[in-house]
Design goal:
5-stranded parallel β-sheet, 8 strands
């Protein structure tokens, strides 16, 4: 009987050892692969819009993709609009030329694609809505279109914080642009001096009581797209007021970004008369003088010369930096916008106008005091 017990124990021990060896020899089961992310194209948002409107729209789309977080890979492809440049006499100037994507001329690419925008538009119907953000098909291909963008804009409660976060995450300016900004600061921003940055938007923005032809009128010209056009004397009075309130004296550097040459020269002359230094970049500027312009262009349209207001409206379109000057480099226009915006984000005090060009320095520097010159102007003339 004892012998049988010994044999049974030996057999059980053998089976246990064999099972252990088999389990250790078996390869570990690999985890299930994660589903492939969907690809979502962020294309040119408006073929007639300015540089920073397209960047602003992009930040809204990027916020939505991050907000829903459902395995979507954004692909930024700006293939059309006012900043596309294909003319050989200008493309040779672009350090990072991309024939498909002008966004890459100024920023580090966001998930590049070799497929043209037309391919993506064929892949996704224009009815693309919020459901694709919530439940994208793994590996699917989508276009983030204007219908979806208009919906997303109203979902963001703290826009400045959202845009700043998306800029810092995705919008990485090319190093050569950062070098241009740094070289300018080294040359003009004297150590120990206070720096005031001033953006004066004139030709590119039309003052109006309305949003456009056939659309509902508003009460005044203080909206973002139709600002009142301030004068040089008024701007400089604000600069002097802010310097005096802070007791900065004459140890001040004033950086001015404006799209009109006459305004720049007038501010420089006023500042020089009281011993203040003004600096600015070498940019394409309009030769019009629209300071103090107060005609209502709300019912005017491109090509309409039926009234004095509409004649002036179309003159401003032709003289506009981003909509006019078709014979000049579109790349250069974008480069100058980038450099001036980054310089406006420097310094101790910001005097701003209306529009995305003025919005972005404020997004990037929320800690800095800001004076809204349009609000100040409307309070003065109302």
């Amino acid at each position: 009987m004892l012998l049988w017990w010994i044999i049974l124990i030996v057999i059980v021990a053998f089976l246990v050892i064999w099972a252990i060896r088999q389990s250790s020899a078996a390869p570990a089961r690999a985890p299930a692969p994660a589903p492939a992310p969907a690809n979502m194209l962020l294309g040119t948002w408006n073929d007639e819009a300015g540089f920073f409107y397209n960047i602003y729209s992009n930040l809204n789309a990027l916020w939505a993709i991050n907000h829903f977080g459902n395995h979507i890979k954004p692909i930024v492809l700006f293939s059309g609009g006012l900043y596309k440049e294909t003319r050989p006499e200008y493309t040779y100037q672009i350090p990072s030329y991309d024939p498909l994507n002008w966004y890459n001329h100024y920023f580090i690419p966001v998930n590049e694609t070799q497929k043209p925008q037309e391919y993506w538009e064929r892949r996704q119907p224009k009815t693309c809505l919020i459901k694709h953000l919530r439940n994208p098909e793994p590996g699917g291909e989508y276009v983030f279109n204007r219908t979806l963008l208009d919906h997303i804009v109203h979902m963001i409660t703290d826009r400045a914080a959202a845009y700043r976060e998306m800029w810092n995450k995705y919008c990485k300016p090319r190093q050569y642009i950062l070098d241009i900004v740094q070289q300018f600061k080294t040359k003009h921003f004297t150590p120990g001096y206070h720096v005031i940055t001033v953006h004066i938007r004139l030709t590119d923005k039309n003052p109006s009581c309305g949003f456009g032809p056939g659309m509902k009128k508003i009460k005044d010209g203080s909206s973002e797209d139709f600002p009142q056009k301030v004068t040089a004397d008024f701007v400089f009075s604000l600069i002097q007021r802010e310097i005096g309130a802070r007791a900065w004296g004459t140890q001040v550097c004033i950086f001015v970004a404006t799209d009109e040459e006459k305004m720049l020269q007038d501010i420089t002359k006023l500042a020089g008369a009281v011993g203040l230094y003004v600096c600015y970049t070498d940019c394409i500027r309009s030769q019009m003088d629209t300071a103090g312009f107060n005609l209502d262009t709300g019912l005017c349209d491109k090509g309409d010369f039926s009234t004095p207001e509409c004649i002036a409206y179309n003159q401003m379109i032709d003289a506009s930096i981003h909509r006019g000057h078709k014979n000049l480099s579109n790349y250069r226009k974008g480069l100058e916008a980038m450099v001036d915006m980054l310089l406006l984000a420097e310094g101790d005090l910001f005097l701003r106008s209306r529009g995305n060009f003025s919005n972005f320095p404020e997004y990037l520097r929320p800690d800095r005091p800001t004076v809204d010159m349009v609000d100040e102007w409307n309070a003065l003339v109302s």
